[in-house]
Amino acid sequence: MSAEQGSSTTRRAVATAYGEPAEVVRIVGADTGVPGPGEVLVAVTAAGVNPFDAKQVRGQVGDDPSKLPLPLGGEAAGVVQSAGTESGLSAGDEVVVYPVTGAFSDSVLVPAANVYAKPAGLADDQAAGLLLAGVTAADILATLGPAKVLLVHGGAGAVGSIVVARAVADGATVLATASPANHDHLRSLGAVPVDYSGDLEAAVRAAAPGPVDAVADTVGTDQAIDVSLNLVPADRIVSIAAWGRSGDGITLVGGSTEESKKNRRDAVPGLLADAAAGKIVVEIAGTYRLPETAAALEAVGGRHPRGKLIIRP
After folding, report:
1. Could you report the per-residue pLDDT of 219-253, keeping only the tens digit for each?
2. Within this chain, do residues 137 and 126 fall inside the same structural domain, yes or no?
């Protein structure tokens, strides 16, 4: 379909109200739209599922009724179906799309500025699950700056794993908290694992080869922040989760400031290149079909194997 042939319809997962995914998520028909000069219509092959998606559905990040029905999904991989004249892309191009609204769809219309060439050899599932976690990790590290001994809270998670891998590659000694089941994974990334049960501060001090000089927090618990404040000055703690602790002087990043947006935008090419080269590995914990979107959103908020969940049309 060319941009001149008119729009068609697509299946799309939406929240019809705010609440539990099983109760409010539906698959509906929607108009794809037609690409304008700087837009691209992408046939989705895989979309990454993130905790934020479930929080959106539950109204935990806003419950404005005017946004309903709410299209779901923020990152995807796919193939260009049709492209605007100023997009720089062509039908058939394999791409990664981030950020995007409504990625849990058969196809999605997006600004060309949010579409990146998918490197050869990078599988669709891995590409679809990379960028939201990847740019968040890059933002943390850019905000922290250089560190010799870095403590990462939640080092085995999607964001934490990328923080660990990148910091190790930059020459830092990385201590990473996780449950014992994930310690071998952390060792494979080059980190020193630390069990967060028990006396966490004592465990960190025992594992560290020298003073910790920076902390990357991806979990946001009071335990993580209290221990961090005992180890480093508040301005050497960057968190993506401890929003209730902003009064302690720590730095919170969420992609809302111009600096944070720039950190994230600038990181995309390097993240894609590193994933294609195997320097960043996106583990896939499970896959769902589009009609199973509600189940995927329920799962992402509960206990599931380490790694990303993916929705395929």
Report:
1. 999 999 999 999 999 999 999 999 999 999 999 99
2. no
Residue 93 and residue 116: Cα distance in Å, rounded? Answer: 10
Residues 113 and 177 in one domain: no
Q: Kindly compute the dihedral angle of the four CA atoms of residues 190, 196, 199, 203, in this order, to the nearest 10 degrees.
A: 0
- Residue 258 in tokens: 């111009």
Residues spanned by the domain of 109: 9-130+282-312
Task: Report the C-alpha gap between 160 and 205 in whole angstroms.
Answer: 20
Question: Residue 139 belongs to a domain with what CATH number?
Answer: 3.40.50.720
Task: Answer yes or no: is 1 within a domain.
Answer: no
Q: In whole angstroms, how far apart are CA 130 and each of 18, 123, 185, 204, 267?
A: 27, 11, 18, 29, 12
* Reported pTM: 0.94
- What's residue 301's pLDDT? 79
What does the angle CA 235 – CA 281 – CA 51 come to, to the nearest 5 degrees? 60
Same domain assignment for residues 126 and 153 = no
pLDDT of residue 106: 98
pLDDT, one tens digit per residue, over 16-54 is 999 999 999 999 999 999 999 999 999 999 999 999 999
Q: How many domains does the chain have?
A: 2
Q: Please count the CA atoms within 13 angstroms of the CA of 94 that sit on its side-chain side.
A: 13
Evaluated on CA atoms 278, 280, 285, 288, the torsion sign reads negative
Buried b (16+ CB within 10 A) or exposed e, 246-284: eeeebebbeeeeeebeebbeebbeebbebbbeeebbbeb
* pLDDT at 73 exceeding the cut of 80: yes
Residues 6+ apart with CB under 8 A from 311: 13, 46, 47, 49, 73, 104, 287, 288, 289, 290, 292, 293, 296
State which of 237, 252, 267 marks the end of a domain.
252
C-alpha span between 211 and 207 (Å, rounded): 10
Decide if 230 is inside a domain: yes
DSSP symbol at 26: E
211, two tokens: 């003073």
